[in-house]
Amino acid sequence: MTEPITAHPSTTELAAQYNQAWVDHDVEAILGLQGDEMIFHLHMPGRLDMGHELYVHEYEMRASRSRDEAAEVAVAAVDVIRCREGQVIRKDTYLDTLALSHQLGATGA
After folding, report:
1. How many CB atoms lie under 10 A from the CB of residue 91?
2. Ranges assigned E (strand) in the chain
3. Closest CA to 31 of 41, 23, 22
4. Full set of structural domains in the chain with CATH
5. Among 61, 63, 78, 81, which residue's Cα sits nearest to residue 16?
6. Per residue in 83-93, pLDDT tens?
7. How far is 58 from 35, CA to CA, in rounded Å?
8. pLDDT tens figures, 21-38
9. Long-range contacts of range 40-46, CB-CB < 8 Å, 24 or more positions apart?
């Protein structure tokens, strides 16, 4: 008896599902789309290495240390997400740490 062929979503379909899971804060969906050997690195700063079966998501990351919106910071961010066989196997996030430092008052500028 042969094993059934399992169709995996395309990288485009996986990207849409994975991004929506993050937007929805749906931890179960996020974990369900990640491979068992998934690696997540937050690089500050880092290098971008491009290859096959990946996608890049550019966005603005916003955060605050309190509920006071005046204390909010916003920086450019890029996720490089690698896929294999319909699952996310690695997610690297790159932030504009110089802009973040300036907004937090951590630099001399």
Report:
1. 19
2. 34-43, 54-63, 73-84, 87-95
3. 22
4. 11-104 (3.10.450.50)
5. 81
6. 888 898 998 88
7. 22
8. 988 999 999 999 988 888
9. 40/90, 40/91, 40/92, 40/93, 41/90, 41/91, 41/92, 41/93, 42/92, 42/93, 42/95, 43/92, 43/93, 43/94, 43/95, 44/94, 44/95, 44/97, 45/94, 45/95, 45/97, 46/92, 46/94
